[in-house]
Design brief:
alpha+beta; Phosphorylase Kinase, domain 1; Transferase(Phosphotransferase), domain 1; three-stranded antiparallel sheet; globular
Length: 430
């Protein structure tokens, strides 16, 4: 039985809107709750397997997925998709889950190309923390590939599709050991392994895909045919990110970190300690909420963060209605707020962006308020091309490609001219 768009279920007030996808074991639909008027995702077992002798096991696995997700609904985890119902419709079991508005990590890379290292790491770390909690609950996901990592517009990453999840060290209930060949370790192909190292491999492989834009060499080919996985650093990826990938994708499961937190430590420890250890207290002197700016920067959404920076600075300067700054408003900008904004940029760019980074460059090129110093600063931070200031839309919002100090966009959002930039850069709290 295949549900069709427009069909209204009998058991629940739900109308099928569209078919989202069909996997090896599940079918997903987008649906509307007619009484509450909101959209959800419905998932059912794939009935193409009805004649499979192990179909009953597949149904039990499907119900088990609902039970696993229910464990995490009691204390909602932002990185794990939430389930709200489990019911039967004409003998067909159905899970009701949140609709994640956004796109998968796989599609994001397909559309945009490889992601900046920091953006990819921010996504993978969110999923890694979710998987760490899942492992502590005695569950292994076994399918944490880019197609199952959803990205909300606010930068939140959410892990979906627990259809292959199992107890740690499971009793194998099927002769089939499903997997995504490019992202599953070889032992999952052969043994259907349920150890945490399976998820560590998959997440490291997902990070490889995100930062290189390339699907990794299948692990079974690496293990049995000696095929090579091109190192991530060959694609311009930072050494510490490449090392984390190498550790997590080790062919021998015993040579991988044995817990998710151990693997995540490679991502933490590789960031320069002077930057990574900065604890930014979001206590504004003017009551400004900096959480959205923090979340955008943590997700590596540099252009959105740049625009948000202008918004929060206008709020802190109490110039929202005017829509621009004055010399006095910048000169008297609250110290606490300037420090918060700068530290957030420095922290999440690993010292690559920030007003204090720009100030250091300004001092290096002379630290004066004159045309020659302005030209040198523009050249160093990439704000000028062919002796002309770059239009805002031509700036580079990719950390791997942007020069050091390129963002925030300096005088380009300090409406009022270059004089405001010099006042900002000479501010006593930078």
């Amino acid at each position: 039985m295949l549900w069709t768009p427009g069909q209204i279920l009998r058991t629940r007030p739900l109308r099928i809107d569209t078919i989202l996808g069909m996997g090896g074991f599940g079918m997903t639909y987008k649906a509307t709750h007619l009484q509450l008027n909101y959209q959800v995702v419905l998932k059912t077992p794939n009935l193409s397997l009805q004649n499979d002798p192990e179909y009953a096991n597949f149904v039990r696995r499907f119900i088990r997925e609902g039970q696993i997700l229910a464990k995490f609904c009691q204390n909602a985890h932002p990185g794990i998709v939430r389930i709200s119902d489990l019911f039967e419709e004409k003998g067909l079991h159905c899970l009701v889950m949140d609709l994640i508005v956004g796109q998968s990590l796989f599609n994001a890379v397909q559309q945009q190309g490889r992601l900046p290292d920091t953006e990819a790491v921010a996504i993978i770390r969110q999923i890694g923390e979710a998987l760490s909690d899942i492992h502590q609950a005695g569950i292994v996901h076994r399918d944490a590939h880019p197609g199952n990592i959803m990205l909300r517009p606010n930068g939140q990453a959410v892990l979906i599709d627990f259809g292959l999840a199992s107890e740690l060290m499971p009793t194998i209930i099927s002769s089939r050991h499903p997997h995504n060949p490019a992202f599953a370790p070889w032992e999952q192909h052969i043994e259907g392994s349920g150890k945490p190292t399976v998820d560590i491999y998959a997440l490291a492989a997902s990070l490889y895909y995100a930062v290189t834009g390339k699907v990794p060499t299948a692990s079974i080919n690496r293990h049995f045919r000696n095929e090579v996985l091109p190192p991530a650093k060959d694609f311009g990826v930072k050494d510490w990110v490449s090392l984390a990938i190498e550790k997590g994708m080790a062919s021998d499961p015993q040579k991988r970190p044995q817990s998710m937190q151990d693997w995540l430590s490679y991502l933490r420890e590789s960031i320069p300690s002077t930057v990574a250890d900065v604890s930014v207290q979001l206590k504004s002197a003017r009551g400004v909420d900096y959480t959205h700016l923090r979340d955008l920067l943590a997700a590596g959404k540099w252009q959105e963060a740049d625009r948000e920076t202008r918004k929060v600075m206008l709020k802190a300067a109490r110039r929202e209605k005017e829509g621009g700054f004055t010399v006095e408003s910048i000169d008297n900008f609250p110290c606490d707020d300037l420090r918060i904004i700068d530290q957030l940029w420095v922290k999440y760019s690993q010292g690559h962006f920030g007003f204090s980074v720009q100030k250091k460059i300004w001092l290096e090129v002379g630290g004066k308020v004159d045309w020659e110093t302005e030209r040198k600063l523009d050249d160093r931070v990439g704000w000028r091309k062919e002796n002309r200031p770059l239009p805002y839309n031509d700036l580079t919002f990719n950390q791997n490609q942007a020069p050091r100090g390129h963002l925030p966009a300096g005088r380009r959002f300090l409406v009022g001219g270059e004089r405001l930039l010099w006042i900002l850069l000479s501010h006593r709290d930078l």
